[in-house]
Amino acid sequence: MANEAVAAQAQLAERERGARQELVGVVTSAKMEKTIVVQVMRTTQHPLYRRVVRSAKKYYAHDEAREARIGDTVRIVSTRPLSKLKRWRLKEIISRSARVA
Question: What CATH code is carried by the domain that includes residue 75?
């Protein structure tokens, strides 16, 4: 019951502030303390050749519980600056890697 109230309050606060940007990517590194590196693939159409081009970018995200592992597909959300490079935090793990670590 208390969890539901906290979740409802968080949703209300999120609606007031505006929705945070969310990205889905694959964890490429989890060796740092409470920090993961997430690679996000984007597809865009080339302006001249009309060919689909894939581009990748890496984001540093905060993982408080250190639950994400290399190869996991995760969802990250934007947040206030936590360090020099970290501007994202882990929201959820979408799928676990089949790789044994």
Answer: 2.40.50.140
